Amino acid sequence: ATLKFYLREGLLQAGALTAPNQADYGETHLRRAKLVRTLREVAHLSIAQIAAITGALDRGEDLYAVMGATVDSLGERQPGAWTPEQHLAAPEIDRLLEALDLPTREESLARDQLIRSLAAIREMLFPGFPVESLVLYARAAADIVDAQVRATPGMFDVEPELALDRSVLALTLFEPVLLAFRRLNHEKLVASRLEGAAGPD
User: Fold this and answer.
1) Three-state SS for 191?
2) 3-class SS at 87?
């Protein structure tokens, strides 16, 4: 039933027919089924988000294109055009990304999230918040990626399809880990501040 669902949604290519109601599925199909299940059950991506990733894989797009599709699938794009404040923040974010040698694709969801976040931070928390303050987050993320690369030497020294699968999985599976630890540290901070404010009793 799971394979039929994946086939119906276009997430898995059909096997070789051996009878009217039977087909052979090989190792490639098994790997793709595991990838789709992981993206669905662990990364909690929607069928449409997974389809964007598997579609890029099926079209034989290069690693950069597939990773772009993956990054853009990891969150919901906020509806509506940018506000004037977000338009002002956009060139600042682009300059920061260029200085950090990071992609500045116009369709990038990550770029859009940074622009909207910077504008909201200035509006809701810290007026005049300097864009350079985001470098702290960028460097922390870069350190994590570097550590992952060092911990998995030869991870991509395999056939192209498997290398793409591994890239997608590494990105999607570690994304919630980073977010979870950030949330737990915030929880710890709030708890310690409240405990201090309440006094020894």
Assistant:
1) helix
2) helix
